[in-house]
Amino acid sequence: MPDSTATPTPPARLALQPRDEHGRVVPAFVAYVDGKPDHRYVREGFVRRASQMRLCFLCDLPLGVYGAFPVGPMRIITRQSAQPPSHRTCAEHAVKACPPLRDGVSAIYITDQWSRHRGRDLFSFQNPFEVTWWIQGRRATYPEALDGMVAALNHLQAQAEQARTSLDPDHLLYPLAVKYERALALLPASAS
Question: What angle do CA 145, 76, 62 make, to 5 degrees?
Answer without folding.
Answer: 115
